Amino acid sequence: MQELELYGTSACHLCELAEAMLAEILVDETDWQIELIDIADNDDTLERYALKIPLLKCVVDGRELSWPFDKLRIRRFVEEGQ
Question: Which residues partner with 33 through β-bridges?
Fold first, then answer.
């Protein structure tokens, strides 16, 4: 199981693009679990990620993939952690 977090916020068009890419990938990668984290819900998270979103984070090892990324880069990011 690949546990990932996608950091973003509402009304962020780049975050929407990242979420759409991940939704397409999830069709094939049924062993991936992705939690959407809205940075506006927590002051510490907002301060830490405000200028970095969208950002994909691996829960297991804390690695982060900053924007810009595409589906190929997302897959490579996940494979690097295996």
Answer: 3
Joined tokens for residue 30: 């049924």
Residue type, 31: D
CB-based contact 36:4 (threshold 8 Å): no
Q: What single string gives the DSSP state of each residue in 29-67? A: -TTEEEEEEEGGG-HHHHHHHTTT-SEEEETTT--EEES
Residue 53: which residues within 8 A CB-CB, separation 6 or more? Answer: 7, 8, 9, 12, 14, 15, 39, 67
Residue 37 phi, psi (nearest 5): -115, 120
**Model pTM score:** 0.93
Residue-wise pLDDT tens digits, 35-82: 999 999 999 999 999 999 999 999 999 999 999 999 999 999 999 987
